[in-house]
Design a protein that fits this description.
The protein has 277 residues and is an alpha+beta fold. The chain folds into three domains: 48 residues, Roll (Transcription Regulation, Sacy, Chain A); 96 residues, Orthogonal Bundle (PTS-regulatory domain, PRD), CATH 1.10.1790.10; 104 residues, Orthogonal Bundle (PTS-regulatory domain, PRD). Strands 1-2-3-4 form a four-stranded antiparallel sheet, with helices on one face. Helix 2 packs antiparallel against helix 5. 31% of the residues are buried. It comes from Jeotgalibaca ciconiae.
Length: 277
């Protein structure tokens, strides 16, 4: 493997057998190395490949700005996630996760914690991703001899969730916003605090997650069982009013019109949720 460009003492750009740029990392790998020199394969710790020239350029820029330990930790977390989740993850995850972890470590050292208000629902809705987040947190704390709070595991989990949603971080934001706002609407309308440990709460979160994914995909379903919907509306008038408030919120904030059948399903879930308060 020949060095194409030496980025620093630990990171070197090269070209693979298909003519695509790769980033090669290893402690001391670039020391005294010049373009055209043979790379010492015994020092190679990790090879990174991106799909586009733009992504490769972003990676080189990022890797020059962050600590090598952040890159190494992110790489280990992604390798672990691939095996544990057994899911396809967007290649840009190495960029977003490295950037996040490096900033999180810097923030921690400056005594600026970042809490995660969605930790509970992430644990419930994405337990496997949360387990990977805990693995990442343990890795960070062990390798850097620090003690970051568990909220950081939730933040890392969100990056893993996002990497399964075509890499658009706004999708994760849309999901969390819909969940939190829907629960706020219920609590404001009823004046009740929701029992987050209940089975009804978990089922409601799962239903909202499926709704959020349909919103992201703009998959509107206009079919309606008018007779059943009318029965549910009459049987649960208070819950139906709350479901309509959520429908209006979604229409305003996401430009997505929830079908009447969906309003009825929300009504039933809200009834179960309030029954366990």
């Amino acid at each position: 493997m020949i060095a194409n460009k030496v980025l620093n003492n630990n990171i070197v750009s090269s070209i693979d057998e298909d003519g695509h740029e790769i980033i090669v990392m290893g402690k001391g790998l670039g020391w005294h190395l010049k373009p055209g020199d043979l790379i010492d394969s015994s020092k190679i710790e990790k090879i990174f490949r991106m799909d586009t020239v733009t992504s490769s350029s972003k990676m080189k820029k990022l890797f020059l700005e962050v600590d090598m330990s952040s890159i190494a930790i992110s790489s280990k977390v992604i390798d672990y996630a691939h095996k544990y989740l057994n899911k396809e993850l967007n290649k840009n995850l190495i960029l977003t996760l490295t950037d996040h972890i490096d900033f999180a470590i810097e923030r921690y050292k400056k005594g600026i914690p970042l809490t995660n208000d969605f930790k509970v629902w992430i644990q419930k809705m994405f337990p496997k991703e949360y387990e990977v987040g805990l693995y990442a947190l343990e890795l960070i704390n062990e390798e850097l001899q620090i003690s970051m709070p568990e909220d950081e595991a939730a933040h890392i989990s969100m990056h893993l969730i996002n990497a399964q949603l075509n890499g658009n971080m706004s999708h994760t934001s849309e999901i969390t916003t819909l969940l939190s706002s829907s629960l706020q609407i219920i609590q404001i309308k009823t004046g009740m605090l929701i029992d987050e440990s209940s089975w009804a709460y978990e089922r409601f979160l799962r239903h909202l997650l499926a709704l959020a994914q349909r919103i992201i995909a703009k998959n509107e379903n206009k079919t309606a069982n008018n007779a059943l919907n009318e029965t549910i509306r009459l049987q649960f008038p208070k819950e139906h009013e709350i479901a309509l408030a959520i429908k209006n919120y979604v229409l305003k904030e996401f430009d997505f019109d929830i079908a009447e059948d969906e309003v009825s399903f929300l009504t039933i879930h809200i009834n179960r949720l309030l029954s366990e308060v």
